[in-house]
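Tutorial, part two.
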Amino acid sequence: MEKLLHSTTSRTSLPDCFVFPADQVPPATSAAVSLPVIDMSCSRDEVRRAMLDAGKDLGFFQVVNHGISEQALLEMAAVGEEFFRLPAEEKLPFYSEDANKATRLFSGTTYETGGEKYWRDCLRFAYDFGAGDRIKDWPDKPRRLREVAENFTVLTRGLAMDLLRLLCEGLGLQHDYFEGDLTGGDVTLDINHYPPCPNPSVTLGLPPHCDRDLIAVLLPGPVPGLEVVYKGEWVKVVADPTVPHALVVNLGQQLEVVTNGVLRSIEHRVMTNSAMARTSVALFVAPTEDCLVGPAEKFLSQENPPCYRTLKFHEFKRTYNVVKLGSSINQRTNLRNTQKEI
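Running the prediction step on this input gives:
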């Protein structure tokens, strides 16, 4: 299992494939941004307004009183960390470099347009809500991983759908606009593990990117690492320790497309840490492969023409994949331009 970063002995230097030119790893400013905290126990009107404000500005926010129990969150975090502590031989059957394999363990993601590798190991699950035995290909160790991960997946997708309905109400869309094919694709659950890194200043855990899906919900863990582009600069995202059991919500590229740019999908990246490992869990809700995604009529007029072409989701992903991720702080703009109406 030498290809898994966390399974190798501690390194004192980085292999060349993990080292980026300085202009591709610009340091974050000394400023930091606290994500807006949205209390879902407030009135629907208050929650809608807060979500729209955050979605138009930062594209990220935290939710509390979201209805997912503390126990479910703690168990998910615990089994994720426990998986990466398993002996190498127990993880080996799930390792694959085939990006088309729905459930797999992989490392050092390499994007199509370059040979860069990122300081991350990832256990990825696919969950098809329309299938029978949805978890038969999932790892069966640690003992409760399947049970805990499935429970977290079902609960968190339910939360994501609630958030989308609230956004519909706030945007003036039909409340079920995102039901059906727009959210009917496989749900993806990533358990990301970023081992301690000998030189965090010259590498990345994940490159600058905008999520290609509709919406993502993140269980972040206690070790920081998320950075976002805010007002043209990279800034660190800081968690408020007085807000326990918050989940981070990230609006994906498809929401920006549907709202014709009213809501923003913000470029973000993950930095590494020299002293501590970081483990996070991210759930992504996406359209079906053949779903046509484009700006909703609600956001179009003679004065406000479409900013994006209407594409099938699999076509969008192909466009997304050929954009060189991590190339510059303008990645989001570059990606948007490839999708612009012509």
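The first strand starts at residue 32 and ends at 34. In part three we will examine how such features are distributed along the chain.
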